[in-house]
Amino acid sequence: MSERTLMLIKPDGVARGLVGEVIGRIETKGFVLEALELRILEREVAERHYGEHVDKPFFGELVAFITSGPLVAGVISGRGAVAGWRSMMGATDPANSAPGTIRGDFATLLSENVVHGSDSPESAEREIGIFFPDLAR
Ligand SMILES: Nc1nc2c(ncn2[C@@H]2O[C@H](COP(=O)(O)OP(=O)(O)OP(=O)(O)O)[C@@H](O)[C@H]2O)c(=O)[nH]1
Ligand SMILES: [Mg+2]
Questions:
Q1: CA 51: distance to chain centroid?
Q2: CATH numbers and ranges of domains, the chain
Q3: Which of 9, 82, 94, 124 could disulfide-pair with 13, CB 3.0 to 4.6 Å?
Q4: What is the pTM of this model?
Q5: Is 133 helix (H, G, I), strand (E, B) or coil?
Q6: With 90 as the cut, is the pLDDT of residue 124 above it?
Q7: Ligand 1 atom 8, closest CA
Q8: Please, what is the Cα angle at 118 between 42 and 51, to 5 degrees?
Q9: Average model confidence (pLDDT) for the chain?
Q10: Ligand 1 within 6 A of 49 CB?
Q11: 116 is a catalytic site residue
């Protein structure tokens, strides 16, 4: 059964010219791109997206970073897309992400870790609704 997830290439990834690399990995894996868009997030959208972290000490820094420049937002689908994309991304802190993962290969900083992926099918549907209302179910 096919599943959907939200994928972001964060502003650091776009600024560093990693869009082609990341999209290429998604395509060669065999996931399907259902939507893809370059955009600068408005603060309200960023705060909604990261709402689960509103009480964390790094929330302000997180929102400032994700709105700091253009990012690429996409919806990808395929069997096991939520866990599969998280696995391709690697651990949240690049100090712990394995070589071969996107964060393991391209990042060193926790605060600038190149990509985002929804952490459950429920989060995926919530986040897709925020970024791509036309695709909401
Ligand atoms: N500056 C800072 N950023 C943090 C810290 N912890 C987490 N973050 C950032 O907050 C983001 C969201 O945290 P989580 O949702 O727990 O991690 P994640 O699901 O792997 O990452 P996302 O895909 O971005 O949601 C992470 O990707 C980090 O970039 C922290 O202690 N300091
Ligand atoms: Mg998360």
A1: 15
A2: 2-135 (3.30.70.141)
A3: 9
A4: 0.97
A5: helix
A6: yes
A7: 111
A8: 45
A9: 98
A10: no
A11: yes
